[in-house]
Predict the structure.
Amino acid sequence: MLIAANVSMTADADLTPYASVMTTAASFTIDTAGHKLYLKSLHPWHATTITDTVGGGELHMVAPGGRLTYNNQIALSGSLKLVTEGEGLFVAAKTAQTYTGGTQVASGTFMYDAAPAQWPLGGNGTGNATAQIVTVDGGARLDVNGKTGFGYTTVIFNGGTVYGSSTQFNCAKRLTADSYLTTNGDFKMQASALDLGGYRLSVDILPGKSLYQECPITGSGAIDVTRGGWLVMTSTDIVAANVDFKIHCALNINKAISIHDYYSWYDNEENTWGDAAALKVYGTFTPASEYFTAATMMNGSVIDLSAKTEVWSTTSSSNGGNTLSYEQGGTIYVDLGDREMDFSTSDAVKIVSWDSQPVNVKFMATDRKSYHVVQKADGLYCLNAIGTTIYVR
């Protein structure tokens, strides 16, 4: 399709049936004027600008599956909103963009492809993060493509996936639905907080690579590392006592962190590093494998042994062999689920082993069978009796 003069739209326009839109003017402007413009590609032979001077105007770039839409020339300005659709790839390479309506990745993949602080997402360095909101919807993907310089951007995880690697993913980060982070290299979450907003962030860390959690975590919710790699906690004193961590990877804690639930599953001794005392668990600790970062169990917390059938050791098999510890004066609960104890050869069945008996800590069973639990020098035992839990210092 050929357009030879500036256009101010008076209604929504769908130009996707055309393979391309070309111009012959020395410069060319399309003003959406509050309307929606749908394009598959825009092939500017001369300087081209798409803007919105009214408010509410949207540019919908529709990239069909297997197709690439690459923008390194078209200037987007005014209050325009950019929406990318289709199953293909849209590459944002044009720098110094000034549009302020935000970016919505509705489907397909949106790739960030500009140098640091070059503003391909709008705002052009205004310092106003609200002018550079990028929303990643369910089924869509934002590929950060190894880039940095997201400082004046807000990324909203709205059910979609943030993908790639970055040594400085320093934007504001907020979940509005259960969402995903998939890395293909080292990824550093820096600066502005990760606000879980009550939702779950499922994380896939490329094996052999690390996700560095270097920013605060706010709100309630969950972080579920489904594969890794290493999760490296380096932000100073993360207090996320309402956040659940389900971690299928090595955990490296360099700073204090307080969390709610901690589910640890890893299949080799590389699950190590960090200060065991730096991890505090306020909810439930589930040691799904023998490799874990030994936490400090806080008053009222639970050790979930409902899936265990043998004696469980409070000392991790990870390098260094760190050992579970407990808040002084606290009560720690042990969840045995529906486990049946075999008292045929003894009135006391060992369920937990430790190298050193905890002092000034009370243990109680949460199982449905009301077993007594009692501390001894070498571990915790269930007694063949019904009644109040025995407390031994």
Q: What stands out?
A: Residues 387-393 have pLDDT under 50 and may be disordered. The longest strand covers residues 179-189. The radius of gyration is 27 Å. Residues 1-192 form one domain.
